[in-house]
Amino acid sequence: MQLKSVNREFWVADQITAQDLPEIARQGIRTILCNRPDGEGADQPNIIEIQQVAIQFGIQVEYLPVVSGKVSDEQAQQFKQRYQQAAKPLLAYCRTGTRSITLWALSQVAEQSLDQMLLTGKGLGYDLQGLVPRLSQQSQPQSGLVAKYSVVIVGAGAAGISVAASLLSRQPQLDIAIIDPAEIHYYQPGWTMVGGGIFPPEKTVRTMASLIPKQVQWIKAAVAAFDPDHQQVLLEGCKPLNYDALVVCPGLKLNWQGIEGLSETLGKNGVTSNYRYDLAPYTWQLVSQLKRGKAVFTQPPMPIKCAGAPQKAMYLSADHWLKQGVLKDIQLDFYNTGAVLFGVAAYVPALMQYVQRYQAQLHFGHQLVKVDGAQQRAYFKVTEGEHSSIVETDFDLLHVVPPQQAPDFIRASNLVDAAGWVNVNQHTLQHTQYPNIFALGDVMNAPNAKTAAAARKQAPIVAVNVLQYLKGSSLFARYDGYGSCPLTVERGKIVLAEFGYGGALLPSFPKWLLDGQKPSRLAWLLKEQILPPMYWDGMLKGHEWLVKPKLPSH
């Protein structure tokens, strides 16, 4: 028997026996619901045997048999009624638990989001993806007509809007829908500069309506699930949307809850993060006010959005303190879960010069797991081989980068790899299983840096490849893994890291003009003056300066 807790009120299990009742009672179960018909298997105890022993433990046993693979809507309603009336916690079981958790999911669809139900099932080892087309059919209008577009784009961030603009620049009459419930669009690369006191926060925000191309149908809704076998996206409320080609680029999820105590103390007690629009100004407030004490900067496990951002915050802060003459009174610590300062070795020497200039202490293999804001204490898990321990430190300023993962509705789908990222061919960005699905930006599993510069290179490639797919061609443009990370090592100078797959250096400028392995004022000018308008008025408008893709000749 395998007991699995779905929530505090509901458990599922495979076939139980009378010998399992003591353990079930120890878990506090008050009702057992059998969903397996008697006589289904030769070695299966019947319901009477279970009842006779359960009564000794004060457990009520009920019977709602379901034939394997044939869960009906009527049975789901019966389950719902019994579930509501039963003493909790309730344990439902069948041969494997699949029928029981399916009944629960169908009975709860009005009360819980579909993506959370799919994710819960997946986490317990149950694939509930087969429910998606069923729920889609239930929610279709009586006319049977479901909206359909040639291209549906999930996500209106940097990647999604850029793909839409690049598609329209090539095929202006293409019918495109873009799905995103957000009203506001952020220029996230600018938040490092906000935290450094260089940009005002307003410079990094615009309304979504001002950026999504007018020819594109903007659907202000959240995605609940995917049904790739029927070429459908399910919106919240299980409303289906059909497509010929699907582009998946909703970005990633910042898991603030992944660090104990963090959410409760963000924005106060000296705890901040440049990874949120509302917190980046607080970073600058803390930096500008700190005259002595300890400043701690953290980096979570990879992959994360802009892997250089955690140390960029440290460099800009330290540069300010150095110029104010107070750095000598401030202890600077950088705690990195990883084993190296930066993933591309060619840029490390230049960065280490600044680590030494600012006298920063580097701590590798340290993962932030808990924050006590009131006491200003940070706790790190340190792993050495098979052993791990917890070390703690005090702080006056704590800059946190949260752990990151794909959004829940992505991880709950069957589009992902074992780590929960959308599974694509790293060169064509086409899904490995569904040829009419493409992905780009932070959500997919190609081994490139998750940066806006990467999305700028990927967007026109995906646009070209989607159009090639729609016209029946398999001749695709190829992505080389390009990403860029402008490492703000001091105010006025940047180490411009540009690289592709395997750490290959992919500079955009000749070395005599801009040597990316050395701090450069020209790179700072690029970051401060050129990249923001290039983002708003170039990338998001479909202008492909320096990134126009080429199809192979054969």
TrEMBL record:
InterPro entries, per the entry: BLH_phosphatase-like, FAD/NAD-bd_sf, FAD/NAD-binding_dom, Prot-tyrosine_phosphatase-like, Sulphide_quinone_reductase
Domain Beta-lactamase hydrolase-like protein phosphatase-like: 3-109
Residue ranges occupied by any FAD/NAD(P)-binding domain in the UniProt entry: 149-269
Gene3D superfamilies: FAD/NAD(P)-binding domain, Protein tyrosine phosphatase superfamily
Source taxon at top rank: Bacteria
PANTHER family: SULFIDE:QUINONE OXIDOREDUCTASE (PTHR10632), SULFIDE:QUINONE OXIDOREDUCTASE, MITOCHONDRIAL (PTHR10632:SF2)
Name this polypeptide is given: Bifunctional protein tyrosine phosphatase family protein/NAD(P)/FAD-dependent oxidoreductase
Lineage summary: Bacteria, Pseudomonadati, Pseudomonadota, Gammaproteobacteria, Moraxellales
